Amino acid sequence: MAPSPSMDSKSWDVISFAVDKGHGVKGLADLGLETLPKQYVQPPEEQITNSTVVTDDSIPVIDLSNWTDPKVAEQICHAAEKWGFFQIVNHGIPIEVLEDVKEATRRFFDLPAEQKNKHSKDNSPTNNVRYGTSFTPKAEKALEWKDFLSLFYASDDEAAAQWPSACRNEALDFMKKSEFAIRRLMEALMKGLNVKEIDGTKESLLMGSKRINLNYYPKCPEPELTVGVGRHSDVSTLTILLQDDIGGLYVKKLDSDSWVHVPPINGAIVINVGDALQILSNGRYKSIEHRVIANGIKNRISVPIFVNPRPSDAIGPLPEVLEGGEKPIYKKVLYSDYVKHFFRKAHDGKETVDFAKI
Ligand code: OGA
Ligand code: NI
Predict the structure, then answer these.
(1) Is residue 207 pLDDT above 80, yes or no?
(2) I want to staple 230 with a disulfide (CB 3.0 to 4.6 A). Which of 27, 83, 311, 347 is the partner?
(3) What is the 100 CA–ligand 1 centroid distance (Å)?
(4) How far is the CA of 23 from the centre of ligand 2 (A)?
(5) How confident is the model at residue 27 (pLDDT cuts 50, 70, 90)?
(6) How many whole angstroms separate alpha carbon 298 and alpha carbon 8?
(7) From the alpha carbon of 248, which atom of ligand 1 is closest?
(8) Is the overall model pTM greater than 0.85, yes or no?
(9) pLDDT averaged over the chain?
(10) N-to-C CA span, the chain
(11) What's the 234 CA to ligand 2 centre distance in angstroms?
(12) How far is the CA of 11 from the centre of ligand 2 (A)?
């Protein structure tokens, strides 16, 4: 039976409609539901309330126009140590590239469910392309109000053959045009760890593979009862995130229980340290918990690029970091095992990194 807005969520199978048939939360939003289906109601401790949000503090905004200036490198390292999150402006990625990938994201999610669902876990002919909703519906007690398309970059030819045509070129272009800024950021961060140059081994560990996600957070009934994305840290070395002008991303302040909002800045890119870089730096750079609120008025999109080690790399504290006698707090783990561990469970804050703790 086709659901109608007048039916409550008990009388039809929300999971089958949103998850299995691929309508996603966008499909639910398009029905014009007035109440949130119970499957999306998060426990009270995960709901985002004003009492945990601080308004008098914000993550650094770093101007990259003089990227050869040692002061800029210092700002980058300082932000990675104290916040794990910052925004960059004058990063060299043309504004049209950013606008185009946002437009392409809307185009993809506006496709009929049957077309998007060709790329679901069950239907996609390749593991490198994955359309889905929430995070790991099978492992979650409560679902998250988000749909996504996740694209692992293997090669241009593979992307041309497998990535959905609605967004392929724009996603590839954003990846390519961000390479310069990513390299400059990595060079600065490595300098701060006493690593003199990024040789082939380091190149693989720091940026050997990439994944781009297109995230869609449709307007949500009763948004205060759920989340767009629950508390988590990323498993990347660095994440490069483009967000639209809606807002809703919150970042945990280091060593506190308060959260700060990441305000949308036109043309800026949000950068955050992921678990892999926290491990490589032996805890110097911080992979910080973050989450996204659901919005009751507007649809929101974001486009993160996850810069990762290669799946076959072993990650552990870099020798340069331990040179002066610092004790390692992480052991070496295979990156593909680390990522598997992350995707086996629901979002659970910072717990993934325990997998690599000594
Ligand atoms: C993520 C994430 C934040 C956002 O995809 O890992 O944290 O603003 N996204 O969408
Ligand atoms: Ni994230």
Answers:
(1) yes
(2) 347
(3) 19
(4) 23
(5) very high
(6) 22
(7) 8
(8) yes
(9) 94
(10) 53
(11) 5
(12) 34
Which ligand 1 atom is nearest residue 213's CA?
5
Distance 6 CA to ligand 2 centre (A): 35
Q: For residue 270, which atom of ligand 1 is closest to its CA?
A: 8
pLDDT above 90 covers a percentage of the chain that reads 86
Residues in contact with ligand 1 by the CB-under-6-Å rule are 213, 215, 229, 234, 241, 243, 249, 290, 292, 302, 304
116-152 pLDDT per residue, tens: 999 999 999 999 999 999 988 888 889 999 999 999 9
The identity of residue 69, as a single letter, is D
Nearest CA to ligand 1 atom 10: 302
pLDDT of residue 348: 86
Enter the tokens of residue 81.
Answer: 């140590």
Ligand (nearest to CA of 135): 1
Q: State the ligand closest to the CA atom of 262.
A: 1
Strand order in the sheet with 129-133: 61-63, 85-89, 269-273, 238-243, 300-308, 209-217, 147-153, 129-133
> Which domains, ranges and CATH numbers included, belong to the chain?
14-356 (2.60.120.330)
Answer whether 278's CB lies under 8 Å from 285's CB. Answer: yes
Q: Atom 6 (ligand 1): residue with closest C-alpha?
A: 234
DSSP 171-232: HHHHHHHTHHHHHHHHHHHHHTTT-----HHHHHHHHSEEEEEEEEE---SSGGGS-SEEEE
> Which of the 8 DSSP states describes residue 53?
B
Q: Give 232 Cα–ligand 1 centroid separation in angstroms.
A: 9
CA-closest residue to ligand 1 atom 5: 304
Detail the DSSP E strand segments found in the chain. 61-63, 85-89, 129-133, 147-153, 209-217, 229-232, 238-243, 249-252, 259-261, 269-273, 290-292, 300-308, 314-315, 333-334
Q: State both tokens at 30.
A: 């398009």
